[in-house]
Design a protein that fits this description.
elongated; alpha+beta; 40% helix; 19 helices
Length: 639
């Protein structure tokens, strides 16, 4: 009777909820006795035991020596204390990095020692592993200052010893320490049983117990009105792994597994039905990437019986990362994605194998050649992710080059993302709305490359600080405002934040290689914008043809301005023609617009931004000479 009621409830939810996932995990779980499928006592672990030297030699193969050498750098490690002032820096200056860099360094050291000991197996690294483990046990919290300030009941970046916050990196370190317990607790006991007892105690009170007891974290998505983001699969994948490694009470393990299923279902439900990741490519790795981690864990703990790899939404969500690539390491970096990011060939290949996507597997082979895999650069604090990357890289090396060719046209109708290629031109444009996850108030913006060189670009997010996720301050940061994206400034106004500030009438045409959208609704009422239509057409030779038309409800108080962000200093020496990167120029009507540019100093603004563009970006502005309540314009960007 209970199963019938659950099935009936889920069928009602399927009808009334129009999201892509429709509680797919819970529906799958109702068709089996999940509790009876659970693999207990860590018999699911797919890796050799610590003492299995032949097993580790085979698993690590050619990477064994480099992992040992990397661990040797941390022998007799001087563990960093997390000082009170490191936490207080978040309040004092807005800096997150004061505390982050110290705990990151300690986690890097401890996880490098862990994999080095697994590789060598002689006990040479064991004292340092015990020291690092003890150091983490002594910390009041494993969470970052920024997350403590946001999620503690007392809103302070100083850790509260009465409040065990579950967050992103706290979960990473819980998983790292759970693996250390699994592999080494018997070795610890040879020294003193209190070492492993203390570690298990800390893992239970910081990760296992709070997960079962609390339902109020936004990332769990149980609170009404919450739209879950990458935090959901990230935190749930860490939680389920910790339970799998530590919990052998079948009732508690079952309770935890089912709670993760309910929570992750809510994340899948909110995935766009077209498969796009509105958080941008770099966040795909921690959203879709952690979803893969979670789904693989779910399969492992149920003996391969609970899987949803054949669900179209899971496959479509994976293939987005292929389509969002511009060329090489350049990505269509809308939202908080960095513009230049080395694709993780192993992660893409692993996802492609799970969902049986030939597109992802062939793209992974292409990415394999962009940069040589270095296991020492993997984040071993995320042990499962890192060891699976190593395994996939070994498989990738044996894959023949499939001659990967990117799609020439991709349209995501729900998310309103458009990717087009023609001749030597590559275009990425977006519609959508201004409450997308990690958005920049940039509806209507675009990116344009010519001959694989950046011409019109998106700056990216820069280094995160206290203001980055403050809804009152975020959009005052220059690179998160529409004024520094490739969209018009209407009647002196930038686009506004909120779900109601959205594009409408967005369409894309494969035959004509055209993307069109109207962004009038993205501006506040004070802008008095009635229509603001943008049309981008990629011609056969790669030239980008831009037309725009607009109308206001009243006489404008300020000129319309067209802003374009470019990576090299523009040449304005010829009226009506602006020299840009890659020998490309922008043609405009000099009788209607005054052209100017400003240099933006980005030195030290963020490693992703600097790696892509160096020390400067430039904003080109075309300002109407005679403000009008109605008008149109035409631009061409090409050779």
């Amino acid at each position: 009777m209970k199963k019938i009621f659950v099935a009936l409830l889920l069928s009602i939810l399927t009808v009334t909820v129009s999201f892509a996932g429709s509680h797919i995990l819970q529906q799958t779980a109702t068709n089996m006795d999940v509790k009876q499928t659970l693999v207990l006592n860590q018999e699911w672990v797919p890796y050799p035991a610590y003492s299995d030297r032949a097993g580790w030699d085979e698993l690590l193969g050619e990477y064994k020596d480099s992992l040992i050498a990397n661990g040797e750098k941390y022998l007799d490690n001087d563990w960093l204390v997390l000082r009170l002032t490191d936490y207080l820096a978040f309040n004092r200056t807005g800096s997150r990095t004061a505390q982050e860099r110290r705990i990151f360094q300690n986690a890097k050291a401890l996880s490098s020692l862990m994999i080095a000991e697994l590789a060598e197996g002689k006990g040479r690294f064991m004292d340092d592993i015990m020291n690092g483990t003890f150091q983490f046990c002594e910390y009041t919290s494993w969470a970052l200052s920024a997350h403590l300030g946001g999620f503690q009941k007392i809103k302070s970046p100083v850790p509260d010893y009465t409040d065990n916050v579950m967050a992103l990196y706290q979960g990473n370190y819980s998983q790292m320490l759970a693996w250390i317990y699994y592999f080494f607790h018997k070795e610890f006991d040879k020294e003193d049983e209190l070492i492993s007892k203390r570690l298990e105690y800390e893992l239970r009170r910081r990760e296992l117990d709070p997960f079962l007891e609390r339902n109020d974290y936004d990332w769990q998505a149980f609170n009404p009105g919450i739209i879950p983001n990458n935090w959901n699969p990230w935190c749930n994948s860490n939680a389920i792994m910790c339970f799998m490694l530590l919990e052998n009470d079948p009732d508690r393990l079952y309770e935890a597994v089912m709670k993760t299923i309910r929570s992750v279902d809510l994340y899948i439900n909110f995935l766009a039905s077209d498969g796009a990741c509105d958080e941008g490519p770099v966040y795909w790795y921690v959203s879709a990437g952690n979803l893969v981690n979670y789904l693989e864990c779910l399969s492992l703990i149920t003996g391969g019986k609970l899987t949803i790899w054949d669900a179209p939404i899971i496959k479509d969500h994976g293939e987005y990362i292929v389509n969002a690539n511009i060329t090489g390491n350049w990505q269509a970096n809308f939202a908080d994605a960095v513009p230049y990011d080395i694709p993780s060939a192993a992660k893409i290949f692993r996802y492609g194998v799970d969902v049986d996507s030939d597109l992802m597997k062939s793209y992974a082979v292409y990415c394999r050649n962009l940069e040589k895999f270095n296991p020492a650069e993997e984040d071993w604090a995320r042990f499962y992710n890192a060891i699976e990357a190593l395994k996939c890289n070994k498989a990738l090396k044996e894959m023949p080059d499939g001659g990967f060719k990117p799609s020439t046209f991709t349209w995501y109708p729900e998310t309103e993302l458009c990717f087009m290629r023609s001749g030597k031109g590559i275009f990425a444009g977006k519609g959508g709305h201004n409450k997308e996850r990690h958005n920049h108030n940039d509806v209507g913006t675009f990116i344009y490359f010519y001959d694989n060189m950046p011409v019109i670009v998106d700056a990216g997010p820069g280094t995160y600080n206290r203001d980055t996720f403050n809804k009152y301050l975020r959009y005052k940061v220059w690179n998160m405002s529409s004024l520094y994206h490739n969209v018009p400034q209407m009647n002196g106004c930038a686009e506004a934040f909120g779900r109601e500030y959205e594009a409408y009438g967005s369409t894309a045409d494969r035959r004509t290689r055209t993307f069109t959208t109207d962004i009038a609704r993205t501006f506040p009422d004070s802008a008095a914008v009635e229509s603001c239509k943008l049309s981008y057409r990629l011609l056969k030779d790669g030239t980008l043809d831009i037309t725009g038309s607009y109308s206001l409800k009243s006489q404008p108080s300020g000129a319309m301005r067209l802003h374009y962000l470019v990576p090299v200093k523009p040449d304005l020496s010829v009226a009506g023609r602006i020299g840009l990167n890659a020998g490309v120029h922008m043609d405009y009507d000099a009788s209607r617009f005054d052209a100017s540019f400003e240099e933006i100093d980005i030195k030290g603004y963020g490693s992703g931004m600097n790696r892509a563009y160096g020390d400067s970006l430039y904003r080109v502005t075309l300002a109407e000479k005679s403000p009008c309540p109605k008008g149109s314009y035409h631009l061409k960007i090409g050779k």
